[in-house]
Write a structure and sequence with these properties.
This protein is α/β, with parallel strands linked by helices. 45% of the residues lie in helices and 14% in strands. The chain has helices at residues 10-21, 33-40, 51-60, 70-76, 98-110, 127-138, 158-163, 175-184, 186-189, 200-231, 235-243, 264-277, 283-306, 334-344, 357-363, 373-377, 397-403, 418-423; strands spanning 2-6, 25-29, 64-67, 79-82, 115-119, 144-148, 168-171, 195-198, 315-319, 348-352, 367-369, 382-385, 408-411, 427-429. The strands form three sheets. It has a six-stranded parallel beta sheet, sandwiched between helices. A six-stranded parallel beta sheet has the order 11-10-9-12-13-14. A two-stranded parallel ribbon has the order 7-8. The structure holds uridine-5'-diphosphate-glucuronic acid (UGA).
């Protein structure tokens, strides 16, 4: 089947490459000529394990192409995906749909023959109706249907998540479109991924509900971690103890510095706004967003407390800047708030991240960047682990201790064991575990 993918960002590129790998013919479109030129040279603008190889293979085998020519890609396609950005609108937290609306207008103008237009971007309930209205207004003669097909992939594990999803959600208002989508996904549900075919509004809401629920799970365990610290309990054992109950599940119960990234903060906020607009407030999610916001700065204060109450004039070493490992994405990363809190308290920051330092330079000021974890620790009053990159999990502890001015380690991801760290001579502080 021929697919047009409008928007060659994270979701568009991964979905496009995976659909091509399943044998479809995919043309990825982007407005940015530099991005398309780079993709045509085989350069991938994002860091995602396995993506460069997958793109190269499918380009070589002729199933994946890149272009700035939206009209050509749309006219040839049976299904056109809208995978453009939906950032938070400045000021009110609603999702900014201007890129989606613009894409709808341009797609409308190019439609030729029956085409299914699919919103893959995370869009508020009712956006499918709006896209349909825009297309109909632009091209009253067009033969098309608008479908919602939210994407649930995680950065860093995007290809595996796309190819082996827990489920596929398709929101369609007519049988022909649902049938075409079912055909498109056949290679996936033959691998036994459940296919949920439902209404468009239900599909749109499902995406937000999923992200809000996951954000709630994380925030719940983070608050339990705070309580563990006060009562001398161990949050990892609590998480396992509750998670092995199948009704709860063990995933997304890792206590940490608060969730970040391009999805949870933005999507919880957008859901809160939509719910307020419809006078059906989601008060749990409102609390989750507020608690998570406060937590990131609280983590900076935790470091200051571990240093004895002041960091003024001291150098603090920070390991891990991206919002999670295996990405170069700094959006809403907890490291930003941790670092700013420490800087506000008079600390100098030296940081190291395997992939995120270029992006970090654009958001953080007055940070010195190190060559490696040991260079980062050099002469520092404390070392803070903010992101759990694998390379930080087995550091040479003797070398680290020798590099630090004071052997204080604040591990916001619990990647070391308190007893090991104590034995190696560190003052070690982690999340929700007895010292
Ligand atoms: C998230 C969802 O997991 C995906 O299902 C969804 O498709 C995606 O958003 C999206 O809407 O596009 P992502 O933002 O890539 O994916 O990253 P996650 O792995 O979910 O992590 C988000 C944040 O939560 C990170 O800061 C991570 O460190 C934190 N987290 C996650 C925890 O603090 N504890 C956990 O147990 C899990």
């Amino acid at each position: 089947m021929r697919i047009g993918m409008v928007g060659s960002g994270y979701v568009g590129l991964v979905s496009g490459a995976c659909f091509a790998d399943f044998g479809h013919e995919v043309c990825c479109v982007d407005k940015d000529p530099a991005k398309i030129a780079a993709l045509n040279r085989g350069e991938i603008p994002i860091f995602e394990p396995g993506l460069a190889e997958l793109v190269a293979k499918n380009v070589r085998e002729g199933r994946l192409t890149f272009t700035t020519d939206l009209s050509g890609a749309v006219a040839a396609a049976a299904a056109v995906f809208i995978a453009v950005g939906t950032p938070s609108r400045r000021g009110d937290g609603h999702a900014d749909l201007s890129f989606v609306h613009q894409a709808a207008r341009e797609i409308a103008a190019a439609l030729a023959g029956y085409t299914v237009v699919v919103t893959k971007s995370t869009v508020p309930v009712g956006t499918g109706d709006e896209v349909e209205r825009i297309i109909r207004e632009t091209r009253p003669d067009a033969d098309f249907a608008v479908v919602s097909n939210p994407e649930f992939l995680r950065e860093g594990a995007a290809i595996a998540d796309f190819k082996r999803p827990d489920r596929i959600v398709i929101g369609a208002e007519d049988a022909r479109a649902a049938q075409l989508m079912t055909e498109l996904y056949r290679p996936l549900y033959l691998n036994q991924a459940p296919l949920i075919v439902t209404s468009r509004r239900t599909a749109e809401l499902t995406k937000y509900a999923a992200n809000a629920f996951l954000a709630t799970k994380i925030t719940f365990i983070n608050e339990i971690a705070n309580l563990c610290e006060q009562v001398g309990a161990n949050v990892q054992d609590v998480a396992r103890g509750i998670g092995l109950d199948n009704r709860i599940g063990t995933k997304f119960l890792h206590a940490g510095p608060g969730y970040g990234g391009s999805c949870f903060p933005k999507d919880t906020l957008a859901l809160i706004k939509t719910a307020q607009d419809y006078e059906a407030p989601v008060r749990i999610v409102e609390t989750v967003a507020a608690v998570n916001d406060q937590r990131k700065r609280a983590m900076g204060r935790k470091v200051i407390a571990a240093c004895g109450g002041t960091v003024r004039g001291e150098t603090i070493a920070v390991l891990g800047l991206t919002f999670k490992p295996n990405t170069d994405d700094m959006r809403e990363a907890p490291s930003i708030d941790v670092i700013r809190t420490l800087q506000d308290a008079g600390a100098r920051i030296r940081a190291y991240d395997p992939e995120g330092m270029a992006a970090a330079r654009a958001v953080l000021s007055e940070v010195e960047y190190a060559r490696d974890p040991y260079d980062c620790a050099r002469g520092a009053a404390a070392l803070v682990i903010v992101t759990e990159w694998d390379m930080f999990r087995a550091l040479d502890l003797a070398r680290l201790k020798a590099a630090l001015a004071r052997p204080i380690v604040v591990d916001l991801r619990n990647i070391y064991r308190p007893d090991d760290m104590k034995r190696n001579g560190f003052a070690y502080v982690s999340i929700g575990r007895p010292k």
